Amino acid sequence: MKADLHIHTYYSDGVYPPEKIVDLALDAGLEAIAITDHDNIMAYEVAQEYLKNKGQESQPLEIIKGVEINTLYKGKEVHILGYLMDTDDSDFKELLKTQQAARVKQTKEIIHLLAKKESIRIKYEDITKQVAEGGSIGRPHIAKAITAAGGTGSVIEAYAKYIHDESPVYVPRKTVSPHDAVEIIYDAGGVPVIAHPHDIDIAEELIKKLMTCGLRGIEAYHRKHSPACVEYFSSMAEELGLIVTGGSDFHAPNMMNGQIIMGKNFIPDWIYDKLLKEKRLLDLA
After folding, report:
1. pLDDT tens-digit profile of 104-161?
2. Which residues, 6 or more positions from 145, have their beta carbon under 8 angstroms from its beta carbon?
């Protein structure tokens, strides 16, 4: 089944609403998608309702419950994907609540420091208006607000000057550990997967540690992973008894040429079936 298991909407740092994502997925010939917004699951119900109203009997599309939890490990960001969890689970709901509160606190502190140290004045509303109501705010939105306020000439410059760990106005987010995120997703009946592990210097060491908390997969297929990288993490998954997942990590069209890369055919058709099989095994455990 042709699937893309890593897609973002404007409920986090994607540019499109869930309805547009559904339309793009259908146009791309996808049969299954997972919307995996950062620390947020609100887009799922919106997408499901829209798909139901479209009545796509001739081209069915499965929408999987997904999320991407931003965590910190030894001062570095590690992202944990979760699939097919019970989103009404109390610990899972508390996890999202905690993550959202941390995003708000971080953003307000950065706004204060920008005004105090750099005389760049932006409002909290300048950031929240960039996402859907209840969506996850973060560094991309702060960078865009800085640029819109004339603080920099581009979003890239805003990142380079203000949105990084060494900047005097940057405040790290007080987020959960990857171990906690994996365990909470697993205990909620979900399939926890480490996202784009090529970004992590000590990926193999961390993956082995997270397996003790319930990690069940590695995102080997990703638009930033070279064929050699895909092979490396696929082999690691097989050796460790983990499933392999994949997705485009779609946020926006390629601004260089306007292409939509969602559902690009580098993701094998068997990815979706492996995920469902793993979910069934967890339910039986």
Report:
1. 999 999 999 999 999 999 999 999 999 999 999 999 999 999 999 999 999 999 999 9
2. 122, 126, 127, 130
- By residue range, what is the domain housing residue 252? 3-92+175-284
Q: Tokens 């559904």 map to which residue?
A: 22
Q: What is the DSSP string of 173-199?
A: -----HHHHHHHHHHTT-EEEE--GGG
Per-residue burial over 7-18, b if 16 or more Cβ lie within 10 Å, else e, is bbbbbbbbebbb
State the first-to-last Cα distance of the chain, in angstroms, to the nearest integer. Answer: 26
Tokens of 90: 């109390």
pTM assigned to the model: 0.93
| 191 occurs within a structural domain | yes
**How confident is the model over 5-61, as pLDDT tens digits?**
999 999 999 999 999 999 999 988 899 999 999 999 999 999 999 998 887 666 789
Count up the domains in the chain and report the number: 2
